[in-house]
Amino acid sequence: MEIPPKSPDGSEKSPQSRELITSNTGSTLCMSSRSESVWTNTSRSKWDIYHKPIIVVSVGAAVFLFGMVITSLSWLGFLPNDKDVYKMCGPAFLSLGLMLLVCGLVWIPIIRKKQKQRQKSQFLQSLKSFFFNR
C-alpha cells in the first residue's frame, strides 16, 4: 500500500488542491494589469512621474563619462600598456552609457505625451458624464 505524501503543514489536502481553493489569481491579474494611477484621480508630483527616466539618464551619463576617462587614459598611455583590458572596457562603457543616456532622453517625451493624452481623456470623460448624466 502506498501512503499519499502529506503537505508541509501537516494537513491532508494535496498542494494542488490547496492552490486551487485559495488561489486568487483573477484578482491579482486584474490588479497587476492596471496601474493604480489609472483608477485614482490624485495628481502626482513631477518627481513621481519622471524619477525613472531621470535615474536612467544620470546613470547613463556617469557610465559614459567613466568610459571616456578609461578610454582616454588607456590611449594616452597613462594606464599599463601590457593589459589590453582597459582598451576593451573603455569603449564598452562608452557604448553602454550612451545607450542608457539615449533611452532615458527618449523616455521623457514619451511620458509627456502620455500625460497629455491622459489629461485629454479625463477631460472628455468629464464632458461625457456631464452631458449624458442629466
UniProtKB/TrEMBL annotation:
Designated name of the protein: PIRT protein
GO CC, one annotated term: plasma membrane
Topology within the bilayer: Multi-pass membrane protein
Keywords tagged on the record: Membrane, Transmembrane, Transmembrane helix
Family annotation (InterPro entries): PIRT
Superkingdom of origin organism: Eukaryota
Ranges annotated as spanning the membrane: 54-78, 90-111
